[in-house]
Amino acid sequence: MGILLLAGTLVGCGSSGQSADSGVGTVAEPGALPVTIQHRFGSTTVTKAAQRIAVVGYSDQDFVLAFGAVPVLARKWADYDVQSWEQPQLRGASLNLVDLGSDSISPEKVAAVKPDLIIGVYSGMTQRDYDALSKIAPVIAQKGEYIDYGQPWQEVTKQIGAALGQPTKADQLVRDVDARFAAARAANPQWANRTVSVATFSGNELSVFGRQDSRSRFFHALGFTTPAEYDRFTGEKFFANLSLENARILDQDLLVWDQMSYTPGGRATITANPAFAVLAAMRDNRAIYLEGEAEKAFAWQTVLSLPIAIDAIVSQAEHALPKR
């Protein structure tokens, strides 16, 4: 993807005596199946409750786990273990983590686990990928109205929930997380219509997340707005690389430095950089830094990770932009 923008990923397995690729199937709500799911490449009809779910999206396993199922395959990438919020949902099972490639999704590796449903909403799937995977099992891809990796978590939850035959539970999961955002927003009315920028700096590459990215939407749910000017830089992508000369666009009411684990030297690298030091948000201590579990949970943006992200990030934002 040109930049490590999907931090906090898993490559490890939970301990279990269960076969790694046996998985746990879903139990459909009465009358929920069959169902036809609309997506970027057309539509897919799911006729029965899936028992062998292959996940080819980068974080879609969280949504599958939230509905009580365990996939027979999850996508392996980067160098993180199974996340803390996933462990309780595994209930002693393990994840069969498979490297499916980065430029395309390996249909051979997916076919090897004999899935009866393939989920790839947060995968950046191409038409070629979809055509190949559709020969193996029904495929759920992202909706057509969103950019790659830009479908809101609410829509991902409902789309996957419908495919698994649990639309009522999907609605409840969304309501529960939305209620957390609403509570934080109500407790901090000073954030209403204040501007925010979410950026990452690798030491030599500066990037900003666009208005359609889930990270920006996270702060929108807290009352913030992202400048429309960002669209000029991001276009149809969820992020844009910036020259240091354009670092000025990061100077908003709240500046969020994300993916600090990928910044060599950590905060000191950012605070010592002259291009950032001149920003009012930096001088006035209106910058926050996402590290550790907060960074991972923020990157995943799922119904399982968001409660952790909300608790951690709201406390930092309250310190940076307190009530007056």
UniProtKB/TrEMBL annotation:
GO terms for biological process: iron coordination entity transport. Belongs to the bacterial solute-binding protein 8 family. It is found in: Cell envelope. It holds the Pfam family Peripla_BP_2. PANTHER family: FERRIC ENTEROBACTIN-BINDING PERIPLASMIC PROTEIN FEPB (PTHR30532:SF24), IRON III DICITRATE-BINDING PERIPLASMIC PROTEIN (PTHR30532). The keyword Lipid biosynthesis does not apply. Keywords: Signal, Transport. Its main location: other. Residues 52-321 form the Fe/B12 periplasmic-binding domain. SUPFAM superfamilies: Helical backbone' metal receptor. This is ABC transporter substrate-binding protein. GO terms for cellular component: outer membrane-bounded periplasmic space. It comes from Nocardia pulmonis.
